[in-house]
Structures
1.
Amino acid sequence: MSMTLKALLKSPWVFHLSTGSCNNCDIETLDCLTPRFDIERFGMLLVGSIKHADVLLVTGSCNRMSVERLKRLYEQVPKPCLVVGIGTCTGSRGLFVDSYNCPVPLDRIIPVDVYIPGCPPKPEAIMAGVVKLIGKVGGGA
Amino acid sequence: MTGFFLLDLLLFGVVITAVAGMAASWVDRKVTARVQYRVGPPPLQPFTDIVKLMGKETLVPAGVSRAAFLSAPLLGFCAVAAVSTVLWVNQLSSGGFAGDWIVVLYLLTIPSMGIIMGGFASKNPYASLGSSREMKLVMAYELPFVLAILVPVIQSGFAMRLGDILADQAAYGAMASSLSGAIALAVAILCMQAKLALVPFDAPEAETELAGGVFIEYSGAPLAVFKLTKNMLLFVLPFFLSVMFLGGFRFDGIEILWTVLKFVGLVALVTVIRNTNPRVRIDQALRFFWGPVTIAAAAAVVLAFLGL
């Protein structure tokens, strides 16, 4: 594994994007930063600018309004980057599956590295998902 | 002679300063985490961050001046390396020159200039706002900082070399042990907080409202250089204050322990100030620095003239 990839996996900075979620997944994501879970132990930081990010955390059902912004933001992430879909909405669109406003799941719009299902997923589940992602990327390279 | 200076610049100015700066940054993050009842990052975390950013793609926004955008981080980096070299040269051998503390004062404003330049070059409204705040902050803290640095100069009989100030402290005790020196040290610590753009005075970066402010458009290697410069400043500024007020760093016998204590103590003090205060608005920061802080610094200068 190259040194930069190793460093990337040890300090993944996270940008958090809501594409029309009900806010529960966002609250659970922020829970990971609290003293109880403290993801800074693994070098993860929540950053405010997309240009600083290594991991794009997407929550919500990708509605028509936000898909434009989602694509634009994905183009702005400095590569290499990883995409994590949090919550059932990103994967299967949850209870919005029949909605006119949520045409496709996230992986039909941008490449997704890992989905973390749950409505909302617990912070433990989010961390387990991220650990699996790190294992997958680290083992595959 | 030139060869030796180059060696000093590369070895002490860049390598040792960068390593010590990353260690200081780790102390800062770890203490922050402990204050918040968290575990905090592992010791190599600042280093990992820099290596990671070096390997990332560098994005330049459309329509900006590439030269200004990409040279802004290097400007601050070079200035900090130069300051550190001057300080180390004075500390390890008596290789200073007349007026070197004035040069250090000038060079210490250049990282801020680089940040202002980079922010305005980014062509982003948040970055421009951050740059204009950084500019106001520089104007706010420079006056009390210069006044505070004058106090040890006056006390050591108008010494023009850092080496003379260190020798004076070795003979008559640290500057901070006198009344005027203690006041000046307190003022200088507050100015250091603003120079590092840490929390009470972090309006230029303001994660929550400006989303990183001046650094918002930076990615990859230029951002890594900015981060490294910040880390190095977190070493150089406590080092400078330690030289001016606390007798400098010494590396003989038990003095090594005192050196480490002085340095970690100053860094931990900065961290505790940043964790126990809310952010002030830029006008509040300006009023604070031009009001009570400047008055205290001027009082310290008068006391130093009176020999207290």
Note: Chain B has a mean pLDDT of 86.
2.
Amino acid sequence: MQLNHERKGDTVIVTVAEPRLDASMAVAFKEGFRRIVGPDVPHAVLDLSNVEFLDSSGLGALVTALKYMGGERRLDLVGLQPLVEKVLALTRMDKVFSIRSSLDEALGA
Amino acid sequence: MAKKRPADVVKDDRAFRESFVCELGPAGAEIGPLVDRICTRLAEHGIDAARLDDACLALTEAINNVHEHAYGGEGGPVSVAAEGRSGRFSLTLRDRGTGMKGILPGERLPSCDAGLETLPEGGFGWFMIRQLADSVEYSSKSGRNTLRLVFANPASQRDPP
């Protein structure tokens, strides 16, 4: 599982460099996200523009990342491909996550 | 049915029936490639993109369930029979793991209303299968489990009940 990251001010941008976020990737994603973002970063942006396929295990891993950030810190999702959007809408998790239309919007908001 | 040359099956609306078999290992790394292989063939049989996404997702969830629950993460054989035509097709998944009893899970979404700490991190799979397929039938008899998912085309949403 490859996660790339970049820091911009108070924000850490984490990019999933994989075409799938599925059951075989979920554990590695949770660990990687935690390790990269750490406990003190107030704002993380998760760039999913490479992710063509998300299953319920991948969705569970995104929820774990959101919980890790907790109520005080912010997590934005950007770059959602159609199937990823569909999974979030189907499970009504589109109401739970902060979904931004672009990286600029996530950084400016 | 006569075997078709690859060029003949592209956007073909004639009936198809194909079987795929796979031995799942403990890590389940075979699931993604297996579903990709099946969905590539479905596309060649003329299934439209929206229904193809539904079928790929539902099948992934179903095989994940077999891997995690029926085989308890230890691996085992699965087979998938794909049949129908571009207008209506079914996927029948068979395994030899521990079967389920009673009504199928996933009638409702896990609750997301009680705040961040209690958000569910799992339990979406069966709900998704039920939403994505137009009909879902399951049976478990004599150590063989069968899940049949039917998809109607081209509607990408489930028909109202």
Note: Strands of chain A lie at 3-8, 11-16, 20-21, 43-47, 53-54, 74-78, 98-99.
